[in-house]
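sorry for the late reply, my laptop died twice this morning and i had to redo everyting from scratch. anyway the thing you sent over, i finally got around to it. pasting the sequence first so we're on the same page, its 414 residues, then the predicted structure underneath. double check i copied it right bc i was rushing
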Amino acid sequence: MFKKKKFNAQPFGYHQEIELEITTLTNLGLGLGRVPVGDGLWVVMVPFTLPGERVKARVFRNHKNFSEADLVEVLTTSPDRVTPRCPLFGRCGGCQYQHLAYARQLDWKRRQVAELLEHMAGLTFFVEPVIGSPREFGYRSKITPHFAAPARRAGAEAGGFPIGFLRQSSRFEIIDVPRCEIATEAINSKLDEVRDGVRKKAAAGDYERGATLLLRDAGGSVTTDFQAIVTEEVGSLRLRFLARDFFQNNPFILPAFVEHVRREAAASGARFLADCYCGSGLFALSAAGSFERVTGVEISDTSVAFARENAAANGIANATFVASDAASLFAGLDFPPGETVVVIDPPRKGCDESFLRQLFAFKPRAVVYVSCDPATQMRDLRLFIVAGYQVTRVQPFDLFPQTRHLECVITLAQ
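ok and here's the structure:
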C-alpha cells in the first residue's frame, strides 16, 4: 500500500486561499502569476485563468519553487474570456482553453512555441502565425473514453459508474462524459448507444476490470471496433488503416497540414524523400508526386501493410515501405544524402537518440520535423543545431482547438 506523501506547508498552508494576478499562460495551459513571499516573488499556477485576470485561488500543493492552486473565483475578468460550451469544462481534463476566445488561443499557442524555441533550443526565430482549424468544435474524429471496473455488489445499479475521461488534475479519477463537444457530431450520436451497451454488460457481470473504448468517425460512419478498417480521404488520396492505429484526428485541417509538409519537403530541391514514423503512408504518399522516389519506415507491421496497399490503390508506383524501427532506416537506404529530404513525425516523446545519431551520420539535405509536442521537438532541435542544421521555418498548426495541444512543423537545412 502506498503511503500518502506528507503535505509541504511552505510557503502556503493546505487549502490556503490567496489572491493574485495572472500574467501569462504556460505551455500546459495553466495560468501563471506571482505573489510576494519573503523578499521575492513566488510562482503560483492556476488552471482555467487568463492573463490580466485577478483571481482568488486555493493552494493544494507546494513544490520547491512554485505552488499549484485551484481556481475559487475570478475577481477581475479578461476581455478574452468567453463562456465555455461544455458544462463539464473545468472538471473534465480533456480541454484547457474553452474559456479563451479562439483567436486568442492561436495567439498564445504561437507565443508558447516561440518561448519554447528560445528557452529549450536557445534560438530566437520568427514563428509563423498558427494556422487554425476550420472547426473550433466538433472536429475530433476519434475519442477513447474509459471506465474503471464497476463495483460488484448485490443490487448494484448498472449506471452507477462513470464512463469518460480523467478528471482535471487527477491521474486516476474518471469523470462521466455523456457528450464531448470537441468530438464530431457522428461520434456524439453514437456515444449514448456505446455507453448503454457498456452498462448493460456491466449489469450482466461481463467486466472483471475496466476498459478503454474506441469511437472513430470516418466521414460520418462511426466504428467502435479496434480491428475495423477505416477509410479517410485527404485531398485526392484515399487511405485505409486499422481503427486502432495512429492517424491524425482532425480531418478538417488535415489537407492544409499535409500540403504544408509536402511543400516544405519539395522546396528543399531534393530528388528523394524518406518518411520516418510513416504510419499508413500519409506524408509519403501525399508527397510522392514531387519526388523521383519515396520510402517510408514504420515499426507497426499493420500500418506498413496498409501503406503498401494505399500506394497501390492510389496508383503511386514510386513509393516503398519498410516495417522496421526508424533508427535502422538509414543503414539500408540507397538514396544519396545530398539529394534526400527526411520527414519525421515521431510519437510525443520525440526522437530516440539512436535514430538521431543515424540521421546525422546520413546527413540528408533537409529535414521536415513534425511534432505533436513542441517541448520534445525543441529538445531534439538543440541536437540538430549542433549537427550543423539551421532552422528555415517554424509553422504551428492547431489540430486541437480548445486544448493546450498543437502540431508544429519545423523545416531544417544544412
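The mean pLDDT is 94.
thats about all i looked at so far, will dig more tmrw
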